[in-house]
Amino acid sequence: MIAALSDYTLQTVALGAAILGAVAGAVGAFALLRRQSLMGDAVAHAALPGICAGFLIAGGRQLETMLAGALVAGMAAAGAVVWIARTSRIKADAALGLVLSLFFAAGVVMLTAIQGAGGAAQAGLESFLFGQAAAMLRSDIAVMAGVGVLVAAAILLLWKEFKLVAFDPLYAAVLGLPVMALELGLTLLVALAVVIGVQMVGVVLMTAMLVAPAAAARQWVRRLGPMVVLSALFGAVAGVAGAVGSAGARGLATGPLIVLAVTALAAGSLLLAPERGLLAAAARRQAARRRLAGRRVLASLQQLADDHDDPAYGAEAGMIATLHGPGARRTLRRLETEGLVRPSAAPPDGRAQWHLTEAGRQAAADGGRR
């Protein structure tokens, strides 16, 4: 593996994957917060006819022309989604599905026609469906890096505006901000991220690079700034992991491995995040159930003491278990460790009885906050 890391091709692919992951992660954070994650899917699928059109215009496999066509087609698809949603009764999600299917179908038809025309120039054009990272050159990395710098500069320069549009576009409009132009700018950033990713990941899987890093970062942080940074970091790490994994296991495609890596990060975040994670939520629910059980047991002991007009009245564990189920015995032991109840041996058979302590009576009187 150490020798593989020094391979020129692996270094090129890993660097490109890191750039792609960082750019897609940063842009995807805004798309996720705007609830337009599927816009990236529409733009990615719409890139296919643009790639084919660029191939036809250039008369061969000229990457710059093909990516320019992908960018134009992606922006056209995004504009079509917005136009349909605003000028008709079709909802945005339906418009996304309609435009996605239409553009992708057109792309498949164009791809089939190009392949049927014969000639060697179009060989490998279908690799844009699922990506072909091994075909990347250092010149492609330079283009990706330039786009990454452009995206980062746009986010930094328009940070406040993008932030406001992402969270509250109506308030942004009240403030006089050009909401439509800002939303168009964010969509353009999504399209740029898609364009630099289609060669490595492909139009089919590119959506995961936009959604998964942002979804993972959202589980760990509460503020937009850390979310964008963490999302970009998750995307870069997943990109490198997929590239290295592909090099270590010959025959496995890099793009799908990158998507699997970033999805694993998202799944791990959904499970392990300290505040929003599923395990943390389950632990909070369990703690709430324990607190509720303790409050109920304290209330029962206090009620029994009041009924017998004896603050020191003791109740047997079996009686408490009859009232609250078999788990009441564990609850009594826990309350004992908290100093809220104490056991004593009752004559003549020495069975344990449970009494409220002073702290327990106070907790019961206060509603059993513990």
From TrEMBL:
Keywords: Cell membrane, Membrane, Transmembrane, Transmembrane helix, Transport. The chain crosses the membrane at residues 12-33, 42-60, 66-85, 97-121, 141-159, 164-182, 188-212, 224-245, 257-282. InterPro entries: ABC_BtuC-like (IPR037294), ABC_TroCD (IPR001626), WH_DNA-bd_sf (IPR036390). It comes from the Bacteria. The keyword Transmembrane helix applies. Residues 341-370 are annotated as: Disordered. Residues 359-370 have a biased composition (Low complexity). It is found in: Cell membrane. The keyword Transport applies. It is a multi-pass membrane protein. Belongs to the ABC-3 integral membrane protein family. This is Metal ABC transporter permease. It comes from Ruixingdingia sedimenti. The lineage of its organism: Bacteria, Pseudomonadati, Pseudomonadota, Alphaproteobacteria, Rhodobacterales.
